[in-house]
Write a structure and sequence with these properties.
Elements lengths: L14 E5 L5 H13 L5 H22 L3 E8 L2 E7 L65 H8 L2 E7 L2 E9 L41 E2 L5 E2 L12 H5 L3 H14 L4 E9 L6 E8 L8 E4 L9 E6 L10 H42 L4 H10 L8 E8 L2 E10 L5 H8 L5 H8 L6 E5 L2 E10 L2 E9 L8 H36 L12 E8 L11 E8 L2 E9 L4 H19 L4 H14 L12 E10 L5 E8 L5 E3 L5 E3 L19 E6 L4 E5 L1 H4 L2 E2 L2 E2 L1 H10 L6 H15 L8 E8 L2
Antiparallel strand pairs: 1-2, 2-3, 3-5, 4-5, 6-7, 8-9, 8-11, 10-11, 12-13, 12-16, 14-15, 15-16, 17-28, 18-19, 19-20, 20-21, 21-24, 22-23, 22-25, 25-28, 26-27
Helix pairs in contact: 1-2, 2-3, 5-6, 6-10, 7-10, 11-12
């Protein structure tokens, strides 16, 4: 928005004043606005105009360091105010470093203002409290706050606004639409409306360097004629709409400005209050020329609540405090106390809500992971940098000192040094970690700043310690200590859950590995390969898929099976099946006898299961006997298991085998395990697999037998391990990496 929309056929010439870049300029600008607009606008609109002009002029003084020009134009629709500087940087330009010193009021060259550099662009307009510490001496602009909100206020309070750029500077303008203060659209009765731009200040007053009070007793009119000015404007409560756009500090700043408008004998004022930790004071708002605090007259904002702060006013002449209107000052002080008290209550509530939100989000994140390493790293990262500068997590181990598991520093370059100090067995932090007891946070000093040590405890077990620290001078407040202690309690259960889960996963992996031979044996003339893929949802459950290769008096027996279900019962059935297979094969039993005995064993053990239900099992078993002619003879039996696939030398694949009954369900007279004799030639392979391969799912569609045959056929010429890996990859790829059941594959290939 860089153009002011037309408001009528006639726009009166504006009134204008130029002000130097000194601490007095915001007050001079306010006085100028009051002299021009008093009696022409309603009081609420005048409040808005004064507030915005103060913000914009303050920004020019602090950031641009050039002469400020304020222009005011009245018309039928309201008032247009513009604030201009003489700095060439455009609004919105990012902050940049410069070697040119910031201009000082004492060494300012008013004849060469256009050559001055600014440290900041105008995107961060300073609020009135940004003038804290301003005086006429060197260093007056140091330490100013960088949280200005000028343009945000302009946008919130004005009917329209915009910016204009020319070679010699920038202008921010705003328009306020309002009703006149009386029936006359351009001013009170007896006035001639808006004065021309050429109105002159009192004789002997330089308009560029006009200080506060340069024209206190007269109003400027066309042709330089002076007339008595209206009475000084008394402070008033800020309008509700305006107050909504201000913080509590901003409201206090405007009240201070209004008070100084009504106190011509005051050169400046400041509102300050104790910080939350009570160790020092902070400036809430300041305006005008400040001198040492000992020369100021001090008024408590609320005599009953010292924590709300105090008002300091500097008289024009030392000892001139008696000229102040004490009742008026006390009234405004009470208004300031109400504003700050309300602001403190809002901030306390916002702080409480923020803390609760932090705990809720942290709990969700910690509960969402069962990986111990991830949980510990997440716990270390959560408080940094919002609540601490660094955070370290230690875990206890039986019979040894706590070990550092995760560490985060807000400055990555400091991480290495902090890590060395955190693991130093003779260092203060490790000593505090070893000595940590109970559920209360313990305060200490570490790495040059305040630190907290909180015990991680869950289910009456001490898991470790959470240590946090800040830079020197930033102590932990009481509510922050409570928050971090609560975080530690919640994190303790998350860490304990992750540790228990990790142990269970390790146990399940160990049991699962025990269901398969640790390594494939060497069979002369036969190339062997295997592959296993766990279901994505397996978690702590031990799958029931297994395979084995057993040497016996009748040659080698190759077997692959699948037990119904998962978990401990499935692992028990698998263990029974492998034990019976190995025992009977070692005794030289043929496969039919072996399957019959296995069926009895599984059926008889059903009563031992906690559920009281039998666990059935499918099995494909074959005796394998290599011949001297480079072939292999097989006798294949299936007990409810999917048919194996034979990969022929010509690259074709086919299903083989005769279907038999499940193991562990039916009586002896109800079962049947028909056998099939096979001869594999050199280069041919027998592919055994569990139902997880053909039941891999993509939506409602299964991988199925045909896709399996196609996948095996595409493995022509591959070694046995290559065939096994290719088949597993085909099933996983079809399921999008989300296998719903375990997959076991065993391949026996006759060597060429």
């Amino acid at each position: 928005m860089n153009a002011d929309p037309a408001t009528g056929d006639r726009v009166p010439p504006p009134r204008s004043v130029a002000l130097p870049p000194t601490a007095d300029s915001p007050r001079s600008a306010r006085r100028f606005v009051q002299d021009v607009l008093r009696g022409r606008l309603d009081e609420d609109t005048l409040d808005s105009a004064l507030l915005l002009v103060t913000e914009l002029v303050t920004n020019v003084v602090v950031h641009a360091g050039t002469t400020t020009t304020v222009d005011i134009a009245l018309d039928q629709a309201g008032v247009r105010v513009s604030v201009s500087d003489r700095h060439p940087v455009r609004i919105g330009v990012g902050r940049r470093e410069t070697s040119v010193p910031r201009p000082r009021p004492t060494d300012l060259d008013l004849d060469n203002l256009d050559d001055l550099e600014s440290l900041e662009g105008l995107e961060g307009l300073e609020s009135l409290e940004g003038l804290a510490g301003l005086d006429a001496g060197p260093g007056a602009f140091d330490g100013l706050r960088e949280d200005g909100r000028g343009l945000a206020l302009v946008d919130a309070l004005s009917a329209s606004w915009g910016t204009e750029h020319v070679a010699g500077g920038k202008t921010v303008w705003f328009r306020l639409a309002t009703r006149p203060a009386d029936s006359s659209p351009l001013g009170p009765a007896g006035t001639s409306g808006v004065e021309p731009a050429g109105a002159a200040p009192p004789a002997g007053v330089d308009p560029v360097a006009a200080p506060v009070g340069a024209f206190p007793d007269r109003e400027l009119r066309a042709g330089g004629e002076a007339s008595p000015a209206p009475a000084r404007r008394m402070p008033r409560l800020i309008a509700r709409d305006t107050a909504r756009a201000l913080t509590a500090e901003g409201e206090v700043a405007e009240l201070l400005a209004q008070l100084l408008d009504a106190l011509p004998t005051a050169t400046g004022g400041r509102v300050r209050r104790p910080t939350q930790d009570g160790g020092r004071t902070e400036t809430v708002a300041t305006l005008g020329r400040a001198r040492p605090a000992g020369e100021a007259r001090v008024f408590p904002l609320d005599p009953t609540q010292e924590a709300l702060g105090e008002l300091l006013l500097w008289p024009a002449v030392t000892g001139g405090e008696s000229t102040f209107d004490v009742e008026q000052i006390q009234l405004v002080s009470r208004w300031m106390a109400l504003a700050l008290g309300g602001g403190d209550m809002r901030r306390a509530e916002e702080r409480r809500i923020g803390m609760l939100s932090f705990l809720a989000e942290a709990s969700d994140l910690l509960a969402g992971s069962l990986d111990l390493t991830h949980s510990l790293t997440l716990l270390a990262r959560l408080p940094v940098p919002r609540l601490a500068q660094w955070c370290a997590v230690y875990l206890n181990h039986d019979g040894s000192d706590p070990t550092l598991e995760a560490l985060v520093h807000a400055e990555e370059s400091e991480t290495a040094a902090l890590t060395r100090a955190a693991v130093d067995p003779d260092g203060p932090l490790m000593a505090a970690v070893r000595a940590a007891r109970g559920d209360k946070a313990q305060t200490m000093t570490a790495f040059g700043g305040p630190a907290l040590v909180v015990v991680l405890q869950a289910r009456r077990r001490v898991l470790g310690v959470l240590a946090l620290g800040r830079a020197a001078g930033h102590a932990f407040l009481a509510d922050e200590i409570d928050l971090l202690a609560d975080l530690a309690r919640r994190a303790s259960f998350a860490v304990d859950n992750a540790r228990l889960y990790s142990r269970q996963v390790e146990l399940a992996g160990t049991l699962q590995a025990g269901l398969r031979p640790p390594a494939l044996p060497h069979i002369p003339g036969i190339d062997l390969g295997s592959a296993y893929g766990a279901a994505q949802s397996a978690g702590l459950d031990v799958g029931g898929d297994f395979f084995d290769l057993i040497s016996g008096p009748n040659g080698w027996t190759v077997a692959i099976g699948d037990v119904c279900g998962k978990g401990a019962e499935a692992a028990t059935v698998t263990g029974v099946a492998r034990a019976v297979l190995r025992l009977l094969t070692g005794r030289g039993a043929d496969l039919e006898e072996l399957l019959l005995e296995l069926n009895r064993a599984l059926r008889d053990t059903a009563a031992a299961y906690p559920s009281g239900h039998a666990r059935f099992c499918t099995l494909a078993a074959a005796t394998l006997l290599p011949t001297e002619g480079g072939e292999a003879l097989l006798r294949l039996h299936l007990a409810g298991h999917p048919q194996p696939v034979v990969l022929h030398r010509d690259g074709t694949a086919s299903l083989v085998g005769l279907t038999g009954t499940l193991l562990g369900v039916l009586d002896d007279d109800e079962i049947s395990f028909p056998g099939l004799d096979l001869r594999l030639h050199a280069g041919e392979s027998l592919v055994l697999y569990t139902d997880g391969v053909i039941e891999a799912r993509q939506g409602r569609e299964l991988f199925g037998d045909q896709r399996l045959l196609d996948a095996v056929a595409g493995c022509a010429g591959l070694p046995a391990q290559g065939v096994a890996d290719r088949v597993r990859s085909a099933a996983e790829r079809f399921a999008g990496g989300n296998l719903r059941d375990d997959v076991a594959i065993l391949v026996a290939r006759v060597a060429e």
